[in-house]
Specification:
The chain has 161 residues and is mainly alpha-helical. Helix content is 77%, strand content 0%.
Length: 161
């Protein structure tokens, strides 16, 4: 792991991130915007899947999937840049490691939604017509992404175990 840290620290991208005072705060703003798009749209998707806001047609939540993906992409890019900019902090950080594991689980959960629940919605099912596991997928999504946000806030304050 030290070889990867040393290599990243020696890259021109690391130098650019660390030597320009405006880069890190700009990345944080973009990361926060991505988080707002990602989590804000997921709240709408998941709560509608759980049966809230029944007057909102469940098929109309599809537009929020696009916003979720845009937010995730912004966070993926800026998150990778954070790691390149300070690999010594991230690679040894237990909160970061758990956060990355939860994001992997969230990706699997999202695939379950897209592959199994969304087709039922497009076929005319409403939230009460969806299989029981659809509600589990929605609750897991909300829980995991809340934990990801909390763990992201822990990163500056914890080290490795």
């Amino acid at each position: 792991m030290n070889d990867v840290i040393d290599w990243l620290t020696a890259t021109p991208l690391n130098a650019f991130i660390t030597n320009n005072s405006w880069v890190w705060p700009s990345m944080e703003m973009i990361h926060f915007l991505g988080l707002c798009l990602l989590f804000g749209s997921l709240i709408i998707i998941d709560l509608r899947t759980l049966g809230f806001a029944r007057k909102l047609p469940i098929t109309s939540v599809d537009v929020f999937i696009t916003l979720t993906l845009i937010g995730f992409l912004l966070n993926l890019v800026t998150g990778a840049l954070f790691v390149v900019g300070d690999p010594e902090r991230y690679f040894v950080n237990i909160a970061f490691k758990i956060k990355m594991g939860l994001i992997a689980i969230a990706a699997i959960n999202a695939l379950i939604y897209i592959l199994t629940i969304q087709p039922k919605i497009h076929a005319g099912a409403d939230s009460q017509d969806l299989p029981r596991y659809a509600k589990v997928v929605a609750i897991v999504s909300l829980t995991i992404w809340t934990c990801v946000i909390v763990l992201g806030r822990f990163i500056p304050y914890v080290e490795d175990l």
